Amino acid sequence: MNESIKLHEENRGKLTVKSRVRIQNKEDLSLAYTPGVADVCKEIKKNKDRVYDLTNKWNYVAIVSDGSAVLGLGNIGPEAGLPVMEGKAVLFKEFGNVDAFPLCINNQDPEEIINFVEMIEPTFGGINLEDICAPKCFYIEKTLKEKLNIPVFHDDQHGAAIIILAALKNALKFTNKNLDDLKVVSIGIGAAGGATIKMLQAAGIKNIVAVDKNGIINKNDPKTLLNDFHKEISESTNPENLSGGLGEALVNADVFIGTSVGGLLTKDMVKKMNKDPIIFAAANPVPEIYPEDAKKAGAKIVATGRSDFPNQINNVLVFPGLFRGALDVRASDINDEMKLAAVDALARMVPESELTVDKIIPAPFDRDVGYNIAFEVAKAAVRSGVARLPLTDEEISQKIKKSFEIL
Amino acid sequence: MNESIKLHEENRGKLTVKSRVRIQNKEDLSLAYTPGVADVCKEIKKNKDRVYDLTNKWNYVAIVSDGSAVLGLGNIGPEAGLPVMEGKAVLFKEFGNVDAFPLCINNQDPEEIINFVEMIEPTFGGINLEDICAPKCFYIEKTLKEKLNIPVFHDDQHGAAIIILAALKNALKFTNKNLDDLKVVSIGIGAAGGATIKMLQAAGIKNIVAVDKNGIINKNDPKTLLNDFHKEISESTNPENLSGGLGEALVNADVFIGTSVGGLLTKDMVKKMNKDPIIFAAANPVPEIYPEDAKKAGAKIVATGRSDFPNQINNVLVFPGLFRGALDVRASDINDEMKLAAVDALARMVPESELTVDKIIPAPFDRDVGYNIAFEVAKAAVRSGVARLPLTDEEISQKIKKSFEIL
């Protein structure tokens, strides 16, 4: 039997819910539950913010998925998506000490998903949307960010975008190029690709060419504009008015970003790119091009989504620390300032002395990644005015350390 | 500071989510999460039932509340209700090794609550409705039981009803009375009172007088029929066509069941009851009458909801074992047969040799209560045809023991 199935079958799942208080006698029971708990309820009734002190809300994150775009497997539904969400919860705990709980729901209507997440807001300190297909994921996240007073974050979008920008910043140190002058080609304009384009633009990159199923997205060519999101980005991308496919897009490009389908990028295409091309081939499990082939064709730096090659673009580097930081200052949002703080924290986690073409991003098991991202994200939340606890840097540091220690 | 508030504040809540798999290196990560987990997803996509083997669904219970009737505190809302739901989850774990997660929602519309619970069905093995006010709780539970293929159980209703019937069966051993001949007066026709009446009727009791805010519920007196549920039970209760208040109802009654408000029952009223009256005064925290006063007025047996008096009517005796049993045979419902099996299991948990007027029900810390209820409930599920795993008694016993052992 397949090893992963065996692991899941032997364990009967990966998650458990535990008590953090002892219940060994009548008195324990009367304090943790009735009648004592009534006073706790009344205290929160008087002042709703006390729910953060007296329950686990401060540390609860819901992982909400409708199973419409799970990994590279497509619309496999909520039950089949559950092992991924449990895995995500395991990683939240392991790398951020965040108590995340999977909620796979059997309704794929955007308005129903929005309504659902609104309903659970009282219980959770944050919402992680997961594996919800594009383009509806953009609308769902945007609407929820406006409606809710707790952070909402679609990891498939921004987790990938944050790592890719961090990796790109470090990769540029091996070339004589600046962010402003780059020509970037991004293929696969789903959740990850779409958010990456926006984040690269926020970082100052002007020349981005977006490629999706019908070729280069071109505002003058309606057949390339498959949905509202394509229309939106067509206004700010493709400044040279290119048309055609990936091959045409890549001529004189500096950076390839693939969040699409395995095997799409050929050696010949890489050869048409500018000197020292940077290749981020993040399709999983088969990358758009294998590192060996990319290197043979002249690539200076290659990253993939896989753990068995160098430079793994793995969201686990980001979401645990990002939520840790947002939760610990009770941020009402995860905004661009916080995401860019995560980018810089992540890029700096590879010290200059260790930086090589095969190590532009830290590995998932560099244990202080979680703390460092949390610290920078929390500071950015305070700076940008979305932290309900406007702590000092020192207070933030202590708070995060304490949160990592809690059982 | 109040001790319970202190406990909650120092712990920052009572619950945590934990991993049951180790994540210590790249290989662990690739088996529990991507890329390995993709095979697990595909396996469930092929055969949806495999979700019970490969995720924690087999052991997940959602504790769903809108905060509309929390303890005796009324409609205090979802945030203020959260400490109770966390407490409930703690008890699920402690006494049934069930992984329960609180979901306090900020919408009190019955249709929205029903829709919400339908949406989370893929993730959970069972649904525990909690602290949802009457009479809407009856409609919500009934509708969900019809719609869902996993067990739905409103503990405020049936938890109380199961313990009260078990306690009554044991109490009768101290009198010369049979269930069929009893006159029972029930005051407080909310969730617990309403379900108790139905359970007593299912057990064969014919003469029940229901009393609520406008006195004895009488089908000929519209002002006593405050809602549809009152109308429904008015057809099967009050065979002597009584009118008036609690005092009138109690003349020649054998049993008083209070799930109402503290202090309502006076010594004079008890004196008007038949010989050897049985008093279950379950209002919390102040019972309808204190045991000492009831005894002085001639009560043979008194039970309350409090842990500091004998015979505590405490739902924790029931729900952990009941769900354990239902989950372990993958029951699609918690039906009357299963509830009555729980009644008998609970009544038998006090052996004849230990049975006294001050011990008619086991104490919450009699540790084998959970196992015994689970075993009888699971067998009843198989007998009544709602078990998707139609196991033998021996298999059930082994399965439950194993479930109690899992971390």
Tags for this model:
homodimer; 407 residues; 6-stranded mixed beta sheet; 4-stranded parallel beta sheet
Task: Give the SSE map.
The structure is a homodimer of 407-residue chains.
Chain A: H1 3-11, E1 15-19, H2 26-32, H3 37-46, H4 51-54, E2 60-65, H5 77-96, E3 99-104, H6 110-120, E4 126-129, H7 136-147, E5 152-154, H8 155-171, E6 183-187, H9 191-202, E7 207-212, E8 215-216, H10 228-234, H11 246-250, E9 255-258, H12 267-271, E10 278-281, H13 291-296, E11 301-304, H14 319-328, H15 336-348, H16 368-383, H17 393-405
Helix pairs in contact in A: 5-14, 6-7, 8-9, 8-15, 14-16, 15-16, 16-17
Number of helices of chain A: 17
State the strand order across the main sheet of chain A: 8-7-6-9-10-11
Q: Oligomeric state of the chains?
A: homodimer
Q: Show the largest interface.
A: A-B, 99 and 99 residues
Q: Please summarize the sheet with the most strands of chain A.
A: 6 strands, mixed
- Along the chain, the helix and strand elements of chain A come as HEHHHEHEHEHEHEHEEHHEHEHEHHHH
Cα-atom radius of gyration of chain A = 22 Å
